[in-house]
Each structure stands twice: as C-alpha cells, then as structure tokens.
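Running co-folding for magnesium ion.
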Amino acid sequence: MKKVILKFGGTSVATNENRKKIVNIIKKTINNGEFPIVVVSAIGRGGDNYSTDTLLGLISEKYKKNNKIGTDFLMCCGEFISTVVLSSCLYDNEIDSIPLTGGQAGLITDNVYGNAKAIKYDNNLINKFINKNIIPIVAGFQGINEELFFTTFGRGGSDTTACLLGYTLDATRVEIYTDVDGVMTADPRIVPSAKLVSKLSYNEIFQLAEMGAKVVHPKAVLVAKQKNIKVYVKNTMKDNIGTIISNESSNKPVVSITSMSNRVQIIINKKDNKNEYYNILDIIAKNKISLDLISIFADRQIFTISLEDREKFVELAHNYNIKFNIKDNCSKISLIGEGMKGIPGVMSKIYSTLVKNNIEVLQTSDSHMSIWCLVDDNDKDLAIKVLHEAFIV
Ligand code: ADP
Ligand code: MG
C-alpha cells in the first residue's frame, strides 16, 4: 500500500474542532487506498498550556544552559501529549493507532542536543504496526541518540520528522498541515493580501525557510529533496490543494518575500584598524561567529551577525583591539525566485521601490535565486509590503 506522511502543526492539534478535521483527513487518506503515518507537534503555541515554550518556563535558564540532556527530555514532552490525544480521537472514531516517540519510530540521531541530526533509521517497530494496519502517531521534533537520550531537531523540527519518515519508509508524499493555505507570497501576518504559491522547487523553499519563512523547516526540505519526495503544504481547516514542493521551480523572478529580524550590521574601517584589518574575518570565523552579507572593500569590511552573537563579537573585538561601528536592530529582507536568473533590472527595481518609500537600504547582496536587502527593523513591514506590491501584485 502507498504510504503518505501527514504532519500536523501545533495549532492544528490545539482544539477538539481542529482534531476532528485531522480525523477526517486521516479517514480520507485511508478511503483513497493509502496508508497514513501521522506526525504531530506539541499542542498550541507560545504560552498555551502544553506548548514547548510553556514547558521550558518550568525550568531555570541556568539549568537550560548546563543540562542539555534534561532540557531536550523536557522539550520532547509536549509532543508525547499530542500523540496520545490524537490517538484517543482516532480510537473514538474506531481507527486503530499507536502513539510512538521519535526514537520508537526509528529516528536515531547524533548527540547535538537541541539541534540534532538523524544518522540512522530503525524501522522495525514502526513497520510492525504498519503491517498490522495500525496507524503510527509519531511525536515530531525528536529522536533518540545512541546513548538512549532524547534529542530534538530545533524549532520547526516536526517538519523534519515528517520528511525523515517519508525518506526512510519510502512514502509517496509528505503532507504538512498548518494554519495557512500553503506557502504564500509573503507571511500573511505581515501582508494580509499575500497569495498562495501553487508550486515551487526544493531549492526555492529551502532559501525561503533559511531566510525566515516559518512555514516549512529548511532541514526538512533537504531530506525530501534527497529522494525527490513531493511535499504538500496545506491548510488543516480547508480542503485545498495547497502548495506542491518538488524539483519543478516556480519559474518566477520573485515567488515569495521573507524576512529575518535581529540582525546586527558591523562596519570595520581600515583606517581605524592598521594591524588586524586583513585578519578580522579569520579571527571571527575561528571564534565560531557566523557572518552574513559580507562586503569587502579596500578601505572597509561590512557584514552582519545575529543578535545572539553580538555580545561575543563585542568581547572578541575588545580582546583584539578591533575598532568597529555597529548598527543594531536590522532586518534582512529576502526576495526569492529561480526565475530571476538572467532577468535584468530586478535589483534596481527593488532599490528604487524602497527609496521611493523613504526606506533606507543599508546593504544589498544577491545570488542566482535570491536578493537580500538590509533595512532598519522599523522599516521591515513596510519594505515587505511595498516589494510585494511591486513584484507580486
Ligand atoms: P505549524 O505550527 O503548523 O508548524 P508554523 O507557525 O511553523 O506552523 O508555520 C506557519 C506560519 O508560518 C503561518 O502562520 C505564517 O504566519 C508563517 N509564515 C511565514 N512566512 C510564510 C509564507 N511565506 N507562507 C506561509 N506562511 C508563512
Ligand atoms: Mg512549523
């Protein structure tokens, strides 16, 4: 029988009404002659009762920093709860299911707590249930390492669980159910008129996800791409086709616009740094601070770092006597589309659109399918709106 992975995000499992929708989607899959394997996230979001954030609020910051094993253990608990809650809904609808942890479902990971990677699969147990027509309900976002401790895949990691299971169980497709109609031309929370993207490539969605669009996790896309597994992104509450992610590109110069806040721009002038000017990037790399939007000129170097690394950078610069200028509260806007290759004037149109709207462009950069602009955080939403208007509407 053809296997299909169905993944439901936090809001999708949050209420009885939503869970009824999930039961219907599972029934529909079975009626199509396919076998569903279900992945769930923790119930709700932010401060909701059983959400991962709420659970993390129960332990101290110091513990979190120094006890990775315990912290990952706690972070897995939200998903345990939702597997059983959904299994109970299916039971009430006379559908047999079994709640499984990520480890029981066979996802064996490395030891990087909080950002683990699958290194092996053990499908024995999950296959026993599949062979008996019992639907596995798998706790998303987690695995187990070879020392038998729970590990987690990082925020949004349930998408990765879905694609890993699709990969190892040879599923025909992965369906990611969420609270929007699919991948949209921009985050609908910022651009309410954003439109559904009907198709885009693994590469396009990877860029979008990496650059801040929360809708699918970037690691998940890479896994699906390895075996060409089609990924559908759909709305739990609607019977729509959603977005199809495959090798086929959107062919659009700009298929979607996304953003990432909490970027910090650093400018290092040669005249202020006689001794270390040529070694600065090397010093930063050796100290594992990741850089972005790097522009090197004869007389200055400009790059951005994440807010998380700000303190570390300032300390490092102090230790090496590096003089720098800093601009806090920046946002990186990304316009993505494989069809932009070879089309002239995309960057100039972006620039003129922003300038016309009195938005200061702090920096730009581009690659074959992305253009990035750095703007002040306060300009971020307006920048996305006017660029959406110029390129998509
Ligand atoms: P889930 O809990 O179902 O995994 P997420 O919160 O991880 O849901 O992802 C869905 C959210 O992603 C949407 O509510 C939307 O606000 C946000 N989002 C950001 N960019 C986009 C985009 N380009 N298309 C669709 N949704 C987006
Ligand atoms: Mg998500």
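Result summary
Residues 9-12, 41, 156, 178-180, 183-184, 186-189, 213-215, 256, 258 surround adenosine-5'-diphosphate (ligand 1) (CB under 6 Å).
The mean pLDDT is 96.
Job closed.
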